[in-house]
């Protein structure tokens, strides 16, 4: 269902077309986490590195699923910092039930797109072209993912890594998490240079 559009909301949408609020310190980036201590989680980190560097690997999705408190987000933070230092095209979204924004997918596509755009000008130009549509924020999730993430990544033609941290914290209400999983499953095949690292608890729908 589309959200109800009032005259005030429509005025706001029309006058903010082509841009989205960008907060580099948002909790959605997982900046509140710390990296692994030196010498810890070596096997896990090496396995992720091997997967990310193996261009012949048929499986482009790596799932790190474990119980709460096992350090999954710490591992994700470590890899994000390492890949950024290597100047790779990487984006991270950390789901959390602490805030409305981070427990839903409302800002998922724009947050991911802004992270990619900060590292690739071709991606940024393609993303901004989609954002010129006056009603893009009202589009269904799968259309936003195509317009803000998948399409620009195909234009960029650069290997990219999308990190989805604490996927189990994404709410199930109104089929939100189901739509995210369905979209990832159906769309990521169209972006052959994209790899996806997922962390979360081993809940049935995620597995």
Notable characteristics:
207 residues, Rossmann fold, alpha/beta, globular, 4-stranded parallel beta sheet, 12% strand, 4 strands, repeat, NACHT_NTPase, disordered N terminus, 8 helices
SSE blueprint and pairings:
Elements: H1 7-15, H2 42-53, E1 61-65, H3 72-85, E2 89-94, H4 100-103, H5 108-117, H6 121-131, H7 141-156, E3 160-165, H8 176-187, E4 194-200
Parallel strand pairs: 1-4, 2-3, 3-4
Strand content: 5-15%
Overall average residue pLDDT: 85
Shape, principal axes of CA atoms: globular
Helical percent range? 40-55%
- The tally of helices reads 8
What's the level 1 CATH class?
A: Alpha Beta
- Order the strands across the largest sheet as they lie in space: 1-4-3-2
Give the SSE order as H and E letters. HHEHEHHHHEHE
Low-confidence segments, given as residue ranges, are 1-22
CATH superfamily: P-loop containing nucleotide triphosphate hydrolases
What's the gyration radius in Å? Answer: 17 Å
CATH fold group: Rossmann fold
Class from helix and strand fractions: alpha/beta
């Amino acid at each position: 269902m589309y959200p109800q559009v009032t005259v005030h909301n429509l005025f706001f949408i029309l006058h903010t077309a082509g841009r989205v609020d960008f907060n580099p310190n948002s909790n959605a980036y997982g900046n509140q986490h710390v990296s692994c201590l030196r010498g810890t989680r070596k096997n896990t980190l090496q396995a992720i590195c091997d997967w990310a560097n193996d261009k012949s690997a048929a499986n482009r999705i790596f799932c790190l699923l474990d119980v709460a408190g096992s350090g999954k987000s710490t591992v994700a933070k470590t890899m994000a910092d390492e890949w950024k230092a290597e100047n790779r095209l990487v984006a991270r979204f950390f789901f959390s039930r602490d805030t409305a924004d981070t427990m839903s997918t409302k800002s998922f596509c724009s947050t991911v797109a802004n992270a990619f755009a900060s590292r690739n000008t071709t991606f940024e130009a393609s993303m901004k072209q989609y954002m010129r549509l006056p009603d893009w924020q009202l589009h269904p999730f799968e259309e936003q993912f195509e317009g803000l993430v998948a399409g620009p990544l195909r234009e960029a033609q650069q290997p990219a890594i999308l990190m989805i941290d604490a996927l189990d914290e994404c709410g199930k209400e109104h089929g939100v998490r189901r739509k995210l999983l369905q979209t990832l499953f159906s769309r990521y095949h169209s972006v052959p240079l994209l790899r996806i690292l997922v962390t979360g608890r081993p809940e049935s729908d995620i597995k």
